[in-house]
Amino acid sequence: TEKPQEEQQQQPAEGVSGALAQITQSPSPTDRLASQIREARLAVHGYAVKAEDTVNQGMNRFMSAEHDFTSTITSLAPPKESNEKLLPGGIYVLVAAMAGSIISRNRNILLRFATPIVTGVTTAHYVVPRTTQNVGNLVWSYEEKYPVVRDNHLRITEGVRHFVETGKAHSQMGLAMAEERVQGVREAVEDWVKKGR
């Protein structure tokens, strides 16, 4: 009778150790492979998501740059009511710039550089004034980002404006003096003719 009691006592102990053995038993190769595949799949998915986000950000930057470029070019065009025609006007400006290059062909390097620019810009102000004004406004918006360039531009513009105003004043004075002299000569001739009769 003692033996069956020992067996009864050993059986529960054996059942507990069997359960512990099953719990502490290492995962099967299939389970290990499945977990590694899962980790690899999640890693590849993470890289794919990062790559997709990077491509989307790049495309957004590209689309934004394209929109800025097209809106800038569109803003340079003259309004329809101005009746400016860009194609013949642009050709006239190019021809004037080339003519300036031909005119200053045998001069010093500074004059050869400046003459085509001056003739082209002057022609542009005359032939396509609205477009030239729009381009000037665009250049000014870029110059405002750099105070040194902006200040130099303002100083040069004021100098040119002063030079032009002085030239206009001198030409008007010269015209007035010429008219006075012509008037004086006319009066002298009339007096001479009157005395001769």
TrEMBL record:
Keywords from the UniProt entry: Membrane, Mitochondrion, Mitochondrion inner membrane
Cellular component GO terms held in the UniProt record: MICOS complex; mitochondrial crista junction
Chief localization: mitochondrion
Subcellular location: Mitochondrion inner membrane
GO biological process, any: cristae formation
Region annotated Disordered, chain positions: 1-27
A Pfam family that the UniProt record links to this protein: ApoO
InterPro entries: MIC26/MIC27, Mic26_fungi
Membrane is among the record's keywords: yes
Subunit and interaction comment: Component of the mitochondrial contact site and cristae organizing system (MICOS) complex.
Function: Component of the MICOS complex, a large protein complex of the mitochondrial inner membrane that plays crucial roles in the maintenance of crista junctions, inner membrane architecture, and formation of contact sites to the outer membrane.
Protein name: MICOS complex subunit
Naturally occurring in which organism (per UniProt): Hortaea werneckii
